[in-house]
Amino acid sequence: MKLKNMYECMGISSGVFAYGQKTEEELEERFTEIDETAEYNQLKVLHAMQKCRVSDIHFASTSGYGYNDLGRDTLEEVYAETFHAQAALVRPQITCGTHALAIALSANLRPGDELLAVSGKPYDTLEEVIGIRPSRGSLAEYGVTYRQVDLLPDDRFNLAGVREAMNERTKLIHIQRSKGYQTRRTLSVAEIGEIIAYVKSINPEVICMVDNCYGEFVERTEPTDVGADLCVGSLIKNPGGGLAPTGGYIVGKEACVENCACRLTSPGLGKEVGATMGVMQSFYQGFFLAPTVTAGALKGAVFAANIYERLGFDVLPDGKESRHDIIQAITFGKPEGVIEFCKGIQAAAPVDSFAEPSPAPMPGYDSDVIMAAGAFVQGSSIELSADGPIKPPFAVYFQGGLTWEHAKFGILMSLQKLVDAQIAKLPSGF
Ligand SMILES: *Cc1c(COP(=O)(O)O)cnc(C)c1O
Asked: Which of 2, 75, 193, 340 has the fewest CB atoms lying closer than 10 Å?
């Protein structure tokens, strides 16, 4: 059977298929660049694994206290080596990205200290961690104050604003690499390096922490290569490679990471405890695959931008821009666009493809939200997924795909739904 016929069997019309093929052909150069980054990062991870002498024995399971868990300790060395950092904490006991960030903050701030966010409002879930929205157990309850400097209208750092906001109580600087659910640009590692250098020129003692979620392996360098003291993320995003069933990581300066370990477990126990209960092989293997899995997701994001940009929809980043994370936003301007897009992503999934997503109220959101995910790991967003709040400008946020082939199919399926519902129209000739 020809590829076209296989797609037809799967519900993709010849017009949508042809438009997809044409778009893909034009992306050859971009895709080569993405492959070269993946190749570079594959060697970086491999080098770390070889240097740390990763062996069969490291995949063994531990229980109870988890004393002398060789696999866990060696994996933390592998992460530290890959990120060119002094130390790492990589644990299944870190439940998600928000938890990892909450640990990094609460472990390194003390009553009377001030936290300063220099890339604008942090990711939604951190509002309650910090106490921007009052919450039980927030940093605010412990007497840690908060200040924020927004990015300038052109999404550059507001250096004068940062200088003015810094004071003798400023202990930790928060920098968020990815845009999250905002409509700003994602920051490059180089830009992150510039703001860190600027902050350190004012006060070298200040701790610079980067929320690295969705950014890992998109570039050849990571924030720890440009001076970040702490770099934090989730294992059900890029660095878990789709195989890690849960977990989070923190890498950075020895003292900062040690503080995190004492906060995650207990003062005095630190990194010494924490059973791994059989997840180590998937953590190692997922990290090994992460550079190529991230590359597949990145190609999907670039493909989606180009598919929808040419049909007249607003896309962020645009089809040509350089990429610093794997998220793609597409604005449809009406609820039906967001809904049909999500239906397509769901219908393309390997798991729960028969389910039909629909908008519903969600805790923490002020409008209905629609989510599409048919993932092997619950909530995993390195797997193909999409979501969007049902409110103007009616944008959908799309990310992931364990393989480029699946990401491509998901995007074509979303387009098929939009074409069938007459919300999108293929260019003439297709
Ligand atoms: C995903 C994400 C987080 C953490 O989210 P969890 O769902 O708790 O893993 C934090 N910051 C950014 C920018 C993110 O994308």
From this structure: 2
